[in-house]
Write a structure and sequence with these properties.
alpha+beta; 2 domains; single chain; six-stranded antiparallel beta barrel
Length: 143
Amino acid sequence: MGESDHPAAEFDITAQLIERIKNMSLEQQVKLLREFDEEKSREYRQHDRKDFLMTVDYVVGDKYYRDFIGNMSDSGVFIKTSRAFSVGQTVLMTFMSPDYQQPFKIGGEIARVTPDGIGIKFKIESQVQETVIQTLVEMIQDE
């Protein structure tokens, strides 16, 4: 018999967790919530993200922004920003191509918003875009 077969044991664990959370400072609670959110997003992610720091220029609506990419995968990027955005907004990003010869442009959609930034899912529209993204991700893996 596992713990899930004992409703009283589950309640006791839940009660203990709630009590511990209540006794945390607001800062500790926010940190814990972020950790839960990050863990949840990792469970749903199909591609591993690699830490990567690069400047990115991007447009959301009719506004231009410049921030840093924090990590990247074959399917998207995480842009570090404190600006307010919404899930579903369309993004056009520009950053340097792997050969650093010319800027690379790609569209995307905001898939996740956190206090630290936004997760963007690429809208890959050509083989060239797919190849450039794969090359960047491979370069990150080799570092």
